[in-house]
Amino acid sequence: MKYYTHILLVSSILLLVISCSKNEEEIIDSEQIFDVNASFEKQIMSIPNNSFTDESLITEYSEIMKEVLTMAKDAEFRNYIYKESVNESNAGDDYLVNIVDVSDAFKSKGGAFSKSSENLGRLDSKIRSIDASIEPMVFFPKAETIEDRVIANKNYDVSKNLNEPIAVLKGAYNDDYSAPGYTLNANGDLVYNQMINEDFAWNNDVYVIGARENTGLVVGPCGEENYQKNSNDCYATGGGGGGGSSTRNTRVNGRAELGGELQVTSDLNEIEHWFSGKLEFRMVVAGVEGSAATVIRDLAFGKVKRKHFRDKKWYDYDVFLFNWNLNNLGDFNIEKWIEVDGGPTGEISITLPGRAAKPASGDTPAVSAFPGGTAKVSFKRDDDDLGVSLIQFTDDLTQEYSLGKIKIRRN
Questions:
Q1: Where are the alpha helices (DSSP H) in 33-112?
Q2: What is the pLDDT of residues 58-83, one digit of tens each?
Q3: Residue (of 115, 139, 104) closest to 66 by Cα position
Q4: Calpha distance 387→147 (Å, rounded)
Q5: Comparing C-alpha atoms, which of 33, 60, 29 is closest to residue 46?
Q6: Model pTM score
């Protein structure tokens, strides 16, 4: 009897050890490998996907986070951030406010805001002195959600739905795209609160503190709210019309070729992390004009909200590309897509394959031989090259072209 009791006891212990081991594996996540007892700078530097190279900039941002969180205890400040970020979005940018503008807006108010607003101005200047290309800002993702609710319900009470925020530092994130969020303790120090992901940020009060994204694109009338299809106001080489008509799924010589339709097939964060907000795509079409490789169209689109690309939805910029005349443009072209992020300017090449001459056939004119060639376009260091696809005149108009992280279509 003792023998069986001993066996049962050992088995129970082994089962308990295995169970505990399994539970430990199941609950290992970003929070478990994050040392909340380390300094703020060490915490940020320990995050695996990181744009920071030293702690000095992190320290300055931490001070901005403290001042912003202190000011955000007041409902007036929270309303200001919401209203100004919506105004900025409607002007074609994102739901953000520059720190220098926050400082200027509250300096004259005095009282509880006086010291913090002055500190923000000083910290903004200090960060710009470290890196002149940086414009410190506050990004408020939930502003988009609130704006949508206001549109749906004119009686929606914005002020009652603006709460004290959690702050996130832009520039460092975990492999699951989450980033640590911070609040203030009783001493006014930053303390870790929880890991923040995209869904949480769009539905709760989260302020992202960091560098404004400087893409180099002109913020103009091309956001999705006031986007004008085929407008020269949006695209320098727009226009079009005329040309032959097509049957439902095939092209005819001289038809007006439209493009700019895409679907993000990967996680959006693989293309643009959520704390960078809206997406900015650029479309380049290279082809043969006469007998030379050339860039036919180079279109940088305005910022578009992430919701239009979530859940693999198709988004259509619906732009005129060219009248596809075979005797001038040949029977194929290359389409490249880029997600624009900015940085120093360089260039990349688009290679066009050679082709043999093709004789005339029916209504289709002859196509001359092309030995192949290369077209070059500008490209900035932080831009994401999303790939290229060969598009042929004979392709079905319903065809989808996979570039890896996105799919594209013509129409």
A1: 40-45, 55-71, 75-90, 99-107
A2: 999 999 999 999 999 999 999 999 99
A3: 115
A4: 34
A5: 33
A6: 0.83
